[in-house]
Amino acid sequence: MGTRGAPERLVRANDLAIRALKPDDARYIAWVEGCPKFGVRVTPNGAKSWVYGYRAAGKLRWLTIGPCPDLSLKDAREAWSEAVAKVARGEDPAAAKAQAREAATVAAEVAAGAPTVGDLIEEYITRYARPKKRTADEDERILRRELAGMLDRRADGVTRYEIVKVLDGIVDRGAPIMANRTLAAVRKMFNFARGRGAVSSNPAEGVDAPSAERSRDRVLTEEEIARLWPAIAAAPDTAPALRLALLFALATGQRKGEVLGATWAEMDLDAAVWTLTADRTKNRLPHRVPLTPIALEILTRARDLGPAEGAHHTTRGASAAALVDGAAGGAGMVFPSPRNGGPLDEGAIYHALQRIMTRSGMLPCTVHDLRRTVATWLAAHRVPESIIGRILNHLSGHSITRRHYDLYGYDDEKRAALGQWGEFLLRIEWGDGTARDG
């Protein structure tokens, strides 16, 4: 065994013979007799060092044990023996030595004031993200989780390739959108640090987003719906009213503003109908939405968000009067803001959905995309376009008669169509999969 271009020779295992080794025109290794793969490397300028050659993971590796003759033959041979034992156990002593040297360098730099990646995260979250971003908690989770392997690294030593490899790993585990979010958070953090003089460059600069994102015309697949529904229901850092509003929007297919503005006075749970007056709809048409069992279940959960939380029954079919009486003033918000009891902010529901989908590793969508998803699913299940239009309260095709006198028309057809959709959601809620009816 030898290095490329380095002649090999043998030397007796005694200090006198080793001191007598002379330099040559080329570097060479003199192997110590009786000690396999253990020798003295001699360079043309006369420098000598103890070395051990071995294979790890099928590759030739070299461990430099120490300088010769500063390190005696006896001590060098003991170190060689320990290294042989490590290789026998499947370890790589040269790699371990390099890692220890890197750790010592980092420790020295940190002691001298050079910030680590962990320091950058702490400064970025504390001094920038929390004061200025609603997604500060999510940024911190992403940065600490995805950069866990380099938290103790000197921040100014992180390379672009290392960032790319981190992103590759996220994509390889099946979370391409999370890779995009990670890149955005890392890039923002390093830009912040560079502006403060903590680092001289941004290793995420010039790195392309790992995955293409396109929200316009977004329609969720059944598999995505099956992942999203429980993710919304269990979102740990999202207000209960926001979670329920998102579920209700997906269960009914109605517009974001109509869901957020829903009041208990609009709900007739005995008849299982949600009635919106003309001033509450986008196209100024009154609208009746049949409430499926899963929509009623969501309303039952929402009832417990009111100020009189303990005063109501918990059955799914609780009467409208019971629910309205328990809401503020009889006309309280179905999904009240935790801050003031009024309607939820549209920005809050948007950011909540983005946060939930990002954490689930899915391509982000908007609340309107949920509405489009409902319509697309109904069309795929042979619901006539005219009925889908009435469920969505679309203006196109509405005659003067329809505008003024047809409020109660097609209730049965709308209920049957939304019933199919509701049964699909119930199968998800009950854990019965996403298989379509035959």
Account of the 3D structure:
The protein is of the alpha+beta class. Helix content is 48%, strand content 10%. The protein is built from 17 helices and 8 strands. The strands form 2 sheets. Strands 1-2-3-4-5 form a 5-stranded mixed beta sheet. The longest helix has 20 residues. It is elongated and about 105 Å long. The termini are far apart. The C terminus is likely disordered.
Key descriptive features of the protein:
438 residues; alpha+beta; 5-stranded mixed β-sheet; 3-stranded antiparallel β-sheet; 17 helices; 10% strand; elongated; disordered C terminus
Précis, in short:
This protein has 438 residues and is an alpha+beta fold.
- How far is it from the N-terminal to the C-terminal residue, by CA? 68 Å
Contiguous low-pLDDT stretches (5 residues minimum) are 307-330, 397-405, 433-438
Strand fraction band?
5-15%
Major sheet, described briefly? 5 strands, mixed
